[in-house]
């Protein structure tokens, strides 16, 4: 099956983007400035990511709220229309099918935002329509993100954290949420394809740096945010990833509830932990972690932290060592000295 390209693909190439396959999409990996520069621009100012590879499943009409409540883990009664919520879709056995952001647009309209490779599975689980091909999603992230987009339209800067709004811009309705995946402040725009080139150009003209998926990964890792296929998967659970707060125990049911309740009662088999290398050596997923000679498991994610200037990694480990505990990480046959870290590795600038 051929890779899909985002609607703005030609504009990314014109900016010199190097592209890569991600979830079946050919997406920008980095621009000529490079991943480290893009990463630091997000921590210090603002960047824009094209994340159109993420899915949008639009669930509308009477019964939409009830369908989401009985399927997804989090409790929508904690929020209201005009808000966004992080949630999970589980198997009956309690494993993670996907982690999702729900944009509650109005009383009977929801945009359910799955990961790229999981859109079909989420569509099958919910009574919604896959509208991914009709829109682009642009994520503006960083401590100056809202100030930058406010120069395009003051209303853009008024969309606060986890808020959702529909704002007409350029003659089309643009759906905006105060969400992101970097640990920094920011907003995400879901814009019809025809208006996307103009909005992307306006964001760049506002002084926002284009950034690719390379920086998106190092940013989310510094913030200890899970990545599907790594910290979350069909072989791992919400509780193992330390995300029990997305389980709506007050609800009568959600898919997988009985399985995760049993896991909660007996205790988790693995614990999410972070490690920081003593050197600049990047850590890698699959690297073996040892504590006092005991094998604790492998890293689920690893990379180089441009802020800490050290290798960092996350892993689902059989023990939960205290922060500061010395460990060894075996990276491609090389043993790297490291220490267990409190999470997140880096807190947002703002």
Account of the protein in words:
By secondary structure, the protein is an alpha+beta fold. Among the domains are: 138 residues, Gyrase A, domain 2; 98 residues, Elongation Factor Tu (Ef-tu), domain 3. It has eight helices and 19 strands.
Distance between the termini: 42 Å
Spell the H/E element sequence.
HEEHEEHEEEHEEHEEEHEHHEEEEEE
What share of residues are in beta strands? 25-35%
Per CATH, the class of the domain at 9-55 and 132-222 reads Alpha Beta
> What would CATH call the architecture of the domain at 9-55 and 132-222?
2-Layer Sandwich
> For the report, how would you describe the main beta sheet?
6 strands, mixed
CATH topology-level name of the domain at 9-55 and 132-222: Gyrase A, domain 2
* Structural classification: alpha+beta
Which term fits the overall shape?
A: globular
C-alpha-based Rg, rounded: 20 Å
How many helical elements? 8
Q: What are the segments in which pLDDT stays under 50 over at least 5 consecutive residues? A: none
Helical residue percent band = 10-25%
Average predicted confidence as pLDDT: 97
Features:
Gyrase A, domain 2; globular; 350 residues; Elongation Factor Tu (Ef-tu), domain 3; alpha+beta; six-stranded mixed sheet
Summary of the model, kept short:
This protein has helices at residues 9-14, 35-44, 64-71, 119-125, 145-150, 196-205, 213-222, 257-266; strands at 18-22, 25-30, 47-50, 57-60, 83-90, 96-106, 109-113, 129-130, 135-141, 164-169, 172-177, 186-192, 209-210, 271-277, 288-291, 294-305, 310-317, 326-331, 334-341. The chain is of the alpha+beta class and 350 residues long. Among the domains are: 9-55 and 132-222, Gyrase A, domain 2 (2-Layer Sandwich), CATH 3.30.1360; 244-341, Aminomethyltransferase beta-barrel domains (Elongation Factor Tu (Ef-tu), domain 3, Beta Barrel), CATH 2.40.30.
């Amino acid at each position: 099956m051929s890779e899909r390209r985002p609607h703005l693909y030609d504009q990314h190439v014109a900016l010199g983007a190097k592209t890569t396959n991600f979830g079946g999409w050919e997406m920008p990996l980095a621009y000529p400035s490079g991943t480290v520069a893009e990463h630091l621009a997000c921590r210090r100012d603002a960047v824009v990511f094209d994340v159109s590879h993420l899915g949008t499943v639009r669930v509308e009409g009477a019964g939409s709220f009830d369908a989401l409540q009985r399927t997804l883990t989090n409790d929508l009664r904690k929020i209201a229309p005009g808000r966004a919520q992080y949630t999970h879709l589980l198997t009956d056995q309690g494993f993670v099918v996907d982690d999702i952001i729900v944009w509650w647009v109005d009383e009977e309209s929801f945009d359910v935002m799955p990961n790229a490779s999981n859109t079909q599975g989420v569509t099958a689980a919910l009574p919604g329509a896959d509208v991914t091909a009709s829109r682009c999603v642009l994520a503006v992230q960083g401590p100056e993100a809202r100030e930058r987009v406010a120069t395009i339209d003051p209303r853009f800067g008024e969309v606060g954290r986890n808020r959702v709004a529909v704002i007409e811009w350029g003659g089309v309705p643009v759906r905006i949420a105060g969400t992101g995946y970097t640990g920094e402040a920011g907003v995400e725009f879901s814009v019809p394809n025809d208006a996307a080139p103009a909005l992307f150009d306006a964001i760049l003209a506002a002084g926002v740096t284009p950034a690719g998926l390379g920086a998106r990964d190092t940013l989310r890792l510094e913030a200890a945010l899970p990545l599907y296929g790594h910290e979350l998967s069909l072989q791992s659970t919400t509780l193992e990833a330390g995300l029990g707060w997305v389980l709506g125990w007050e609800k009568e049911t959600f898919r997988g509830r009985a399985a995760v309740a049993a896991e909660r009662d007996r205790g988790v088999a693995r614990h999410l932990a972070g490690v920081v290398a003593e050197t600049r050596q990047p850590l890698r997923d699959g690297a073996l972690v040892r504590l006092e000679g005991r094998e604790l498991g492998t890293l689920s994610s690893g990379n180089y932290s441009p802020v800490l200037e050290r290798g960092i990694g996350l892993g689902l480990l059989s023990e939960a060592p205290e922060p500061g505990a010395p460990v060894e990480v075996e990276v491609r046959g090389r043993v790297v000295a490291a220490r267990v870290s409190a999470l997140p590795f880096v807190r947002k600038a703002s």
